[in-house]
Design a protein that fits this description.
By secondary structure, the protein is an alpha/beta fold. It has 5 helices and 6 strands; from the N terminus they run βαββαβαββαα. It has a 6-stranded mixed beta sheet with strand order 3-2-1-4-5-6, sandwiched between helices. α3 packs antiparallel against α4. It is globular, with a radius of gyration of 15 Å. The chain starts with a strand and ends in a 5-residue tail after the last helix.
Length: 155
């Protein structure tokens, strides 16, 4: 089991939480981005730089992810593909994407894209808060704790 991070847009606070979690649990983590990333020296943490281009990092994650892996991403189509491959996806705001909630989230995302394409201003995501950071940390901790108790985890 590995943790994959769609790192181009992942907030620094979330990366810091992930760095500590990878060290504490000794789980391999790979940050995928099209820019050079700094990571702490660790046998459990590495960065993978991909070429620039639309969804190149996403494609790399989808090609590499294995059933049971966890992907941290705010990209709903990527999350859907990961779930379709038997992986698990966690939003940086702490929302765990599942087979039950991903269809609705994809539908809303697609509707909003259509509205924007039609010229409607829909606004962007809400500003980042400490509550978002806490929600992510709590959800990640629940996942890692459950995995540790069973040896393989529910994810």
């Amino acid at each position: 089991m590995q943790i994959w991070v769609d790192a181009d847009a992942c907030p620094r606070a979330i990366k810091e939480i992930l760095f500590r979690a990878a060290e504490r649990t000794r789980v391999s983590m790979i940050l995928v981005a099209n820019t050079l990333l700094r990571t702490p020296p660790s046998p459990f943490i590495r960065a993978m730089r991909v070429r620039r281009g639309f969804d190149i990092a996403d494609r790399e994650i989808v090609e590499q992810v294995q059933a049971g892996d966890l992907v941290v991403t705010a990209d709903i189509p990527l999350a859907a593909e990961v779930i379709g491959r038997g992986g698990h996806a966690l939003d940086p705001r702490g929302v765990l994407y599942t087979v039950d909630n991903i269809p609705e989230r994809l539908a809303v995302r697609n509707l909003m894209a259509e509205l924007r394409a039609g010229g409607l201003e829909t606004g962007g995501p809400a500003p980042w808060t400490q509550g978002d950071t806490r929600a992510f940390a709590n959800q990640l901790d629940r996942l890692l704790s459950a995995r540790g108790k069973s040896g393989a985890g529910p994810w």
